[in-house]
Design the sequence.
């Protein structure tokens, strides 16, 4: 699955790291904005790591930096229309790959797999929250 997703990302000329940042912004909902801190906390990367991703994505016109209207000292990262279009197309391609790779499973097996993956994600998020609150 990993190899298929890497090939898919290459088709859209985004790295796994860039895809992750774009999908987090998309999932944030309209207006598809987050602070760099929110992004790096979601992605579990360093502030320097997220800065590099934002720089690359901004250079390609997929995101833009804005001053936060609530706090002029803070910056927001926002998906551009091009970024939104790209991540929607790439995400649909990812979903098609996952559907293809799980087509041998029954509906019940897919539901079970989805439940287990959700449990894993929630556990990882809980651990991350505990580490940040310690």
Sequence:
């Amino acid at each position: 699955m990993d190899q298929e997703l890497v090939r898919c990302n290459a088709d859209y000329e985004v790295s796994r790291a860039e895809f992750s940042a774009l999908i987090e912004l998309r999932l944030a909902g309209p207006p598809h904005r987050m602070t760099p801190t929110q992004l790096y906390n979601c992605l579990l990367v360093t502030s320097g790591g997220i800065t590099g991703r934002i720089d690359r994505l901004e250079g390609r016109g997929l995101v833009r930096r804005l001053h936060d209207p609530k706090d002029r000292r803070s910056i927001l990262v926002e998906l551009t229309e091009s970024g939104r279009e790209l991540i929607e197309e790439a995400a649909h391609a990812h979903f098609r790959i996952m559907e293809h790779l799980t087509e041998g499973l029954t509906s019940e097996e897919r539901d079970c797999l989805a439940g287990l993956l959700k449990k894993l994600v929630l556990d990882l998020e809980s651990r991350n929250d505990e580490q940040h609150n310690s």
User: Anything to note?
Assistant: The chain is about 70% helix and 15% strand. The longest strand covers residues 71-79. Strands lie at 33-34, 63-68, 71-79. The CA atoms of residues 28 and 34 lie 7 Å apart.
